[in-house]
Amino acid sequence: MTAFMGVVPILETRTGAPPLAAARLRRQLTVEAAARIARLTPEEVTWLEEGRLYRFPSSDDALVAVLLYATGLGVGRQEARRMAGLPLVTMPNARTIRRVAGAAVGVVAVVAVAVAFVVPRVLDRTRAPAASGAGPALPPTWRVTVDVFNGNGDMNYTRTVASRIGAFAYRIRRVTRADRFDYPQTAVYFHSGGERLAERLARQLGVSARPLPGSGDPRRLVVVVGPPRI
Q: Which of 100, 138, 146, 159 shows a CA-CA span of 20 to 30 A to 199?
């Protein structure tokens, strides 16, 4: 395999305790106690707090574990926004809610009229060209498996990239070393028939896609991780 493309952007590093770990410590809970509350294992709690989502069997399992843990800790909306570095939201009073609701009703009425009289005409004009030029819809990301290979010697960075891919709901099948550690750039590789799937993942990672020799499963992608951008 030959790497040819841009490099995965470096994720920002956080200082201090990770957000979920900080939330647990504010409640004066040990890892074991938090795991019992969330109906998770202590090992799964550690994976979540350290951001090692690739350790779960699938991205769906990782998302469910995050929900269980946040719910078990009682993380509310304001605390979640604070953990994410977002501004806090103040709740409007009843008078403001009534005024906004009244305006929304008027907007909905206008939109309904537009939908009834304008949209059908637009669809009639665009239906034929769209049908002839549109390609088949891509399968959802959770139906695509991805193998992540360490091609730079830095396994920690490779796992960071794997976690980012898992965050897009791809099924991470394995994270392991490549055949060598001198790949200069990160690349997404695909078998015949998987070009559009590879291009989608390549766009999400900010890299390019390259074909693999021979034949294979078009829904299996290979990401070879090069060195991080300096």
A: 159
